[in-house]
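REVIEWER CHECKLIST
Item 1: Sequence provided? yes
Item 2: Single chain? yes
Item 3: Sequence as submitted:
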Amino acid sequence: MSDSYAGIVEQWVRRVVDEYGSRLAARGVDDPGRRKSNAFCALCVAALLELDEGKAVDCLTDGGEDGGVDAIHVGETLHDSFTVWLFQAKYHGSLDGTKAFPAGELSKIIQTVTTIFDPEKPLTGMRDIAHAVEDARSRIRDGAIPQVQVVLCNNGVRWQKDGDARIAQADLDPRQVQWEHVNHRRLVELKVPREINTVLAFEGDAAVEDLSFRRVLVGRLSVRQIAALMHEHGDLLLERNIRRFLGPNNRVNHDMLTTLATPALRPNFYFYNNGVTMVCRGFQHNSLQARNFAVQVKGLQIINGGQTCKTIQRALEARPEDDYSQAHVLVRLYALGEDDQEIVDKITYATNSQTPIELQDLRANDEVQRRLVLDVQAIGYTYVSKRGGARRMEGAIGSAEAAEAIMSVWRQKPHVARTAGMKLFDQYYSQVFTPTLTGAELVAAVLVLRDVETRRRTRAYPAWAEIFMPYASHHLTMMIWMHVLATSATGQTLAHTGFARAIERWQAQAEQTYLAMVDDLAVVLKVWMALSLDQPQVLRDIAGAFRGGRLGAGLALWFAPDGAQRRDSMRGLADPELASWKQRHAGRGHQLPLSGSEPGED
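Item 4: Structure as written out by the authors:
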């Protein structure tokens, strides 16, 4: 018998297969079943990490040397820590939703986890994930701590007890490695949110007050009720303004688990925890009672305390037989109107200082963003400053895409654009969206970044350049515009009057310019960064080069007005090794050397 949720996901999978086609093919093996499995994996990545489907497809790594990883995403560094998501997906042709995730598949990915986060271990048999791994390893070498989320996806049920036994036997530190299961039901719930109406049973005294035409209730809930809420509604409770997966604060989660697992400490859980902040459209309670209120809530959402709630759920699932009657959580419940989204944003930001929340919405209504919407519209394009708005409008430019392009081109900090993520809307915001930024500059930078990204995705570059191209889009975008501006009369800024002329100039020579900049980038890497392409550790060094600012500084000098002699000199220094490299790797099918390989070998 077909599962209705599985049927819905099957339709989504077919749409993704039709839309992305060969980008879903596993490296070395292309068959309809693998494409569908990768489409399902991409849907899970997009839903869980709140990425556009195209970016989720970019995360796919399925191939013969992927270490059991079907997709990988390396998050931004926050508070000396960063999160890496590893996805493995199994998609069954049967749509009855009863098949369990195969526990035997866990062994390979466990081995991968123990390998890729130790920079001293060679990446044997992991060529397909090497670029992302070296990106993570370069951060580890800088002292950042990786937090690992292993996400196992299928259109069936969770793995059985032997899978849990394999995880336990691996003895991976739970403060750094967490395991999640996503199936077709959870995917539908994430993509099609529904309003949550429920009853919260507060225990003991509670304070209810009207403040500034809004209602506030402060009281305490039992951890059993929190666990029941999470079991029934899951990540739908966390839909509003917070990334569904947890950030790098796992030491705190581990301490919470310890407290809940220790009978003597459970009564103190209320005092050790900062509590949970919830918002809703409205709530009602019996005001004639003195205490122990049963509160009817409409439109419930958790905007702070998601880590607490998910950790409580895990703790009670692990030890359901224990007595938790003395364990409670402080809860603040705010009833806000439909026009109160701005205050929700500000509460979320103020109470989530340790969480990588989305900041785009908080900036969407400031003066610069409102001006840019009109400025971009004046030259025939659409700019959407609100998070997620561009997904619903074909060709529209989103503020996150714009921020990366602007930081790359006009601020000449492509390494920041590539790695900063939401910091572009926080500490870098005033650098990116300056009062003098024009709509023409915004659109021009985005158009080139899109073109460069399309060429990367379709591998429309020489095979010998595979070693650095997955890192290079933002740097190439900067280089292309610097080349266009250096060879035109527009100067170093772009106004509406020069926009069409500059775009036409670039488009007329787009492919030629792109390939020339790929060549120039290889020269700068070789000479300016002193990289030896034939050394086994070259991929490690390249990953570090693109993360640091020194490469961007070298490119700025490369394009300086007095740089012609410098460019000729650097090309002369680089030519012997680059020529040899290009010759040996021109027909390698976009493969690359790894640590432990002989120079020039695959």
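Item 5: Key structural point noted by reviewer: Residues 362-585 form one domain.
Item 6: Recommendation: ____
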